[in-house]
Design goal:
- The radius of gyration is 30 Å and the shape is globular.
- Strands 9-10-11-12-13-14-15-16 form an eight-stranded parallel β-sheet, covered by helices on one side. A seven-stranded parallel β-sheet has the order 17-18-19-20-21-22-23, with no helix packed on it. Strands 2-3-4-1-5 form a five-stranded parallel β-sheet, sandwiched between helices.
- Strand 7 and strand 8 form a beta hairpin.
- Among the domains are: 137 residues; 150 residues, Rossmann fold (3-Layer(aba) Sandwich), CATH 3.40.50; 82 residues, Arc Repressor Mutant, subunit A (Orthogonal Bundle); 171 residues, Leucine-rich repeat, LRR (right-handed beta-alpha superhelix), CATH 3.80.10.
- By secondary structure, it is of the alpha/beta class.
C-alpha cells in the first residue's frame, strides 16, 4: 500500500522539533521547575535513541505492532512539544510583567500562575511524558528496530528554477495536437447548425490537457481571430452563476437574473473563445442551462472543454473530442532530458542515458510523471551508480502498484527530507485548484514550527523561501505567477499532486464537513468549508490548526457568512494557527488570551469587527496578525506583541491611527499601512525608525497631520535604512477616491505657502533607501520634489497624484535608467509646464518606456478606461 510508510516519514519532523526545543532551553526555563534539567537531559537521550530507529520502523510499518508503536510515539511527541512550549511561554509571561516591583510579585503569587503551584503541575506533566517516552523506547528492542543513518537534507538549488513549472515555450511533444486544435478554432465546420462549437480535450490527470488549451489560447493567430477570449477554471463545482460571473468579470454578489443578462450582452453576436478548464459535471441538465446562455455568440465561436471524463465530453461536445494520449518514447526522452540534465542537454554517458531510458518507459508517457522524476533526479545531483540503484531498487517496486502514475509521483514525496514532507502535507488542507500565496504559505509553515533555524543568520522567512523553491523545483507546485519585480507571488498544485498530499497526511489532517465524527483525538490540523459550530466544547481535541475556508476566497460552496462557535475554538489550548476569514464576527472574546500557543491569527474580511480586545497582547507567541478588509475596525490594542513579524491592514477604512509601542517590534517584516493620527497617545512617525526589517510594501497615510510639526520627521530619518522595502506610498490625503481641494491651484490661497514649505520639509526627510522599486506620492503640496528622487537607482515606477502645486520634476530623473513607468495624475501645474516646454526638453524622460499624464485621478481612470 502507498500509505504504509507515511506515518514514520512525518514522525521525523516531529522528533526534530522536540529535540530542537529540548536543546534550546535557557537557564530561566530551567528555573520554572525543580530538577527540570535532569528531566530534560533524560528526555533528550530517549528521543535521540528513538529518532535513530524511526526509519527502520517506517520500513516495517506493515506490521500492525510497529504501526501502533509509531502512532503512540507520535501522540506523546506532540504532547511533549506542547508542554515544552508551555514552559517557554511561562518565561515570556514573567518577562512581560517586567521590573522587580512588589506589586508585580504579589500579582504573580496570588494569580493562577503561582510559581510553586504551577511549577509543581508542569513538573508532574514533564515526568509523566518522560516516563511515556521511556516506555516507548523500551519497546523498540521488543520490535527489533535497528538504528539507521540520519537523512541528508537537501540544500536550496538556485539554478534552473524556471524548469519546475511548464512555460509555454518549454512544452515538449504536443505540436501535432496543438496544430489540430488550432485548425478547429481557425477553420470551424460550416455545417454545424449552432453558432458556437464545443471541442473537448479528454485525458487522464497529468497528460497536459490544460497546457494544450493554454498553448492554443495564447497562440497569436488565435488571439487575433476572436473578438473575446475567456478562461474559466470550473473544477469540482459546476455552478452556472459562478461560471457566468467569471466570464463577465463580475465579483459582486449580483442576482442570477442580472448576471445572465450581462453575460448575454457581453457575447451576443461576438465571436468568442471560451475555455472551461477541468470540468467534472456529468449532469446534462446543468450543461443545458449554461448552454442556453452561451450559445448566442457570433458564428465561429468556440468553447474548449478540458476534462478527464468521457461522459462529460459526450454531454457537451458538438465536435469530436481530442483524446490526449501519453507521449511516445522519443518525445518522453526529450522532455526527460530537458528537466533532468543541465541545460536540457544529454550527457555523453551512454550507460546513464540507457538507465534514464528504462526509467522513462515506466512513466507511461505522462508528462507530469516524467517531469516529476526528471526534477527529482536533477535536484538530487545523482551519478550513474545512484541512477542504477534508483532504477533497480526504488523504481522496480512500481510494477507492484495498482496505480503506476500515482506511485511514480509518490517517489517525489519519498525523497523529500522530513521538514519538507510536513510543508508539502500541510497543503492538503486547501481545496483543489487553490491559489497559494507564497508569503502566506511560508508564514503558516513558520507558525507550525516546520521551518528549521538557519546556521547562516538568515531569518526564518528566507529559509521558508528556500523550502518553497525546493518544492517548486521538484514539480510539486505549478502555474507560478510573478509580481512586477519578477518574484514569485502565487502557485497552484496539480490535482494528482493534491491527491498525493491528501493521501500522506493520514488521521492528523481533516477536512470538516459538518459532522463531528470527522474529527478524532489524533487530528491536529483542521480546515472547514462550512460553519464551524459545536454544541459543546471538548478538551479531548488537540488541534494545532483551524482554517475556515470561506467563499469567495477559497472556493467554498457556502455563500453566506460563516458562523463561528468561539467556546469550541477557545477550548483548543494547543492552537497555533487560527484563520477565520469572511465570517460574521462582531467581537473577539477576551478569553482568546487562553490560546497561549497561537502564532498565526487571520481575521481578514470580517466586515463588522470593530476592535480587538487588549487580551490579544497577552499572546506572546503571536507572529502573524491579518486584519485586511475589516472595514469597521477602528483601533488596534496598545502594547502590541513584540513577537509580531507580520501585520496586514489593507483596506481597514475606519482605522484612524497606530498604537504606541509599534516601534519596539524590531522583528516586524510586514506592515502594510502606517496611519498617522492626531492624538498624543497614538504612535507617531518616529515609531517607524527602528523597523528596519520591513519588506515588501509600506503605505504611510495622513502625512498632512505632520504639517504643524514637520521637525518631528526631520529628526526621525525613518525610511533611509529600510533596504528591504520594495514599494513606498506617501499619502497626504485620506481617501484615494476623494480629490484634494481645487484651491491649491490658486497661488494666493490662504495657508498655501505654509503648507508648501511644510510638505517640502516632510518629503525631504522621508527619503527611502536607494533600492526602492516603486514610489507613489499623493496629495503633496510642494512646488518641487526633493533631489533624492533622482538618486533612486533601482526605481521602476514613479506615480505622482493630486499634487496640484507641483511645478517640476527633479533633474536627476534623467539618470534613472531603470525607470520603466512614470504616471502623473491630476497635477495641473506640472502638466501645463510639460505642454509649454520645447521638444528638446522631452528627451530627459524619453528613455522611460511608459509615460502617462492625465488630469484624472487613478480611481477615476479605472472608470474611464
Amino acid at each position: 500500500m502507498l500509505v504504509q510508510n507515511f506515518i514514520w516519514q512525518r514522525m521525523e519532523a516531529i522528533v526534530r522539533i522536540v529535540l530542537q526545543n529540548l536543546n534550546s532551553f535557557s537557564q530561566e526555563e530551567f528555573g520554572i521547575i525543580w530538577n527540570l534539567k535532569d528531566d530534560i537531559q533524560r528526555m533528550k537521550r530517549t528521543v535521540s535513541a528513538i529518532k535513530a530507529v524511526c526509519q527502520d520502523a517506517g520500513a516495517k510499518a506493515n506490521n500492525l505492532q510497529v504501526s501502533n508503536w509509531l502512532e503512540e510515539l507520535k501522540d506523546v511527541l506532540y504532547d511533549a512539544d506542547d508542554l515544552l512550549e508551555d514552559i517557554s511561554i511561562k518565561v515570556l509571561e514573567r518577562k512581560a510583567m517586567g521590573g522587580n516591583s512588589l506589586l508585580r510579585e504579589v500579582k504573580i503569587f496570588f494569580s493562577h500562575s503561582n510559581k510553586i503551584v504551577y511549577g509543581f503541575k508542569l513538573g508532574h506533566e514533564m515526568k509523566e511524558i518522560r516516563k511515556r517516552l521511556e516506555d516507548i523506547a523500551k519497546n523498540k528492542t521488543t520490535l527489533q528496530l535497528t538504528d539507521c543513518p540520519r537523512e541528508t537534507p537537501i540544500g536550496c538549488t538556485e539554478q534552473r528554477q524556471t524548469y519546475s513549472f511548464v512555460r509555454k515555450d518549454e512544452v515538449i511533444g504536443r505540436e501535432e495536437e496543438k496544430k489540430l486544435l488550432t485548425s478547429y478554432l481557425l477553420h470551424p465546420d460550416a455545417s454545424v447548425a449552432d453558432n458556437v462549437c464545443v471541442v473537448p480535450i479528454v485525458g487522464i490527470g497529468g497528460l497536459g490537457k490544460t497546457t494544450l488549451a493554454q498553448l492554443v489560447y495564447n497562440d497569436n493567430a488565435v488571439q487575433r481571430y476572436f473578438e473575446e477570449k475567456l478562461w474559466v477554471c470550473v473544477s469540482d463545482e459546476f455552478d452556472i452563476k459562478k461560471i457566468a460571473q467569471k466570464m463577465i468579470g463580475d465579483d459582486k454578489n449580483s442576482e442570477i437574473e442580472q448576471v445572465q443578462q450581462d453575460l448575454r450582452n457581453k457575447i451576443q453576436g461576438r465571436k468568442y473563445l471560451l475555455v472551461l478548464d477541468d470540468v467534472w459535471n456529468e449532469d446534462r441538465e446543468l450543461w443545458l442551462k449554461l448552454k442556453s446562455l452561451v450559445m448566442e455568440g457570433g458564428k465561429g465561436s468556440i468553447i474548449i472543454v478540458t476534462t478527464r471524463s468521457r461522459t462529460v465530453a459526450k454531454i457537451m461536445a458538438t465536435h469530436p473530442p481530442i483524446f490526449l494520449k501519453g507521449l511516445d518514447l522519443e518525445r518522453s526522452l526529450k522532455l526527460f532530458s530537458h528537466v533532468a540534465f543541465d541545460g536540457g542537454k544529454e550527457p555523453n554517458d551512454r550507460e546513464l542515458l540507457a538507465i534514464g531510458r528504462d526509467i522513462v518507459k515506466k512513466c507511461a508517457g505522462v508528462p507530469l510523471a516524467i517531469r516529476t522524476i526528471g526534477s527529482l533526479l536533477y535536484s538530487r545531483n545523482l551519478g550513474r551508480s545512484d541512477w542504477l540503484y534508483f532504477k533497480e531498487v526504488e523504481f522496480s517496486q512500481i510494477d507492484l502498484q495498482k496505480d503506476k502514475i500515482f506511485a511514480i509521483l509518490k517517489l517525489s514525496y519519498d525523497h523529500l527530507p522530513s521538514f519538507l514532507k510536513q510543508c508539502f502535507a500541510y497543503c492538503s488542507l486547501f481545496p483543489k485548484g487553490f491559489e497559494f500565496d507564497k508569503k502566506t504559505l511560508i508564514q503558516l509553515w513558520l507558525a507550525e514550527g516546520f521551518i528549521r533555524p538557519s546556521n547562516d543568520n538568515r531569518c526564518e522567512e528566507d529559509v521558508g523561501h528556500e523550502y518553497f523553491m525546493n518544492l517548486l523545483l521538484m514539480s510539486l507546485f505549478q502555474e507560478v505567477t510573478t509580481d512586477d519585480y519578477g518574484d514569485i507571488s502565487t502557485c497552484k498544485m496539480h490535482d494528482l499532486i493534491h491527491d498525493l498530499a491528501q493521501l500522506v497526511v493520514g488521521k492528523e489532517y481533516a477536512i470538516f464537513e459538518g459532522k463531528k465524527e470527522n474529527l478524532g483525538n489524533r487530528t491536529r490540523y483542521l480546515s472547514s468549508r462550512t460553519s464551524l459550530h459545536f454544541a459543546k466544547t471538548s478538551s479531548s481535541y488537540k488541534l494545532r490548526t483551524v482554517i475556515v475556508l470561506q467563499q469567495p476566497l477559497y472556493g467554498s460552496k457556502n455563500l453566506d457568512p460563516l458562523h463561528v462557535h468561539f467556546p469550541f475554538l477557545l477550548s483548543l489550548k494547543c492552537l497555533r494557527v487560527l484563520t477565520i476569514c469572511g465570517s460574521d464576527i462582531i467581537k473577539i472574546p477576551k478569553s482568546i488570551r487562553e490560546l497561549k500557543h497561537l502564532r498565526y491569527l487571520d481575521l481578514s474580511r470580517n466586515h463588522f469587527l470593530v476592535n480587538l480586545p487588549p487580551d490579544v497582547t497577552s499572546l506572546h507567541n503571536l507572529q502573524t496578525l491579518k486584519l485586511s478588509r475589516c472595514l469597521k475596525l477602528k483601533e488596534l490594542p496598545s502594547d502590541i506583541n513584540k513577537s509580531l513579524r507580520h501585520l496586514e491592514l489593507n483596506e481597514c477604512e475606519e482605522l484612524t491611527c497606530m498604537p504606541c509601542g509599534l516601534g519596539q517590534l524590531t522583528h516586524l517584516q510586514t506592515l502594510t499601512h502606517f496611519l498617522l493620527g492626531h492624538k498624543n497617545e497614538n504612535g507617531d512617525i518616529s515609531e517607524l525608525s527602528g523597523l528596519n526589517s520591513l519588506k515588501g510594501k509600506l503605505v504611510i497615510k495622513w502625512l498632512d497631520s505632520l504639517r504643524d510639526n514637520a521637525e518631528e520627521v526631520e529628526s526621525a530619518k525613518v525610511l533611509l535604512e529600510k533596504k528591504h522595502l520594495q514599494e513606498l506610498e506617501l499619502w497626504w490625503w485620506h481617501d484615494e477616491n476623494v480629490e484634494p481641494p481645487l484651491q491649491w491651484e490658486d497661488p494666493i490661497a490662504e495657508g498655501r505657502i505654509l503648507f508648501q514649505k511644510s510638505d517640502e520639509k516632510i518629503l525631504q526627510c522621508l527619503q527611502p533607501h536607494h533600492s526602492i522599486k516603486r514610489l507613489v506620492i499623493n496629495g503633496y503640496c510642494g512646488e518641487s520634489l526633493p533631489d533624492w528622487v533622482g538618486n533612486l537607482s533601482s526605481l521602476l515606477s514613479l506615480e505622482i497624484s493630486n499634487c496640484s502645486g507641483l511645478k517640476s520634476l527633479p533633474e536627476g530623473i534623467c539618470k534613472l535608467k531603470s525607470l520603466q513607468q512614470l504616471c502623473v495624475y491630476n497635477c495641473s501645474l506640472l502638466e501645463r509646464r510639460y505642454r509649454r516646454i520645447s521638444g528638446e526638453d522631452w528627451p530627459k524622460i524619453a528613455h522611460i518606456p511608459k509615460v502617462m499624464v492625465s488630469a484624472y485621478t487613478p480611481s477615476a481612470l479605472k472608470y474611464i478606461n
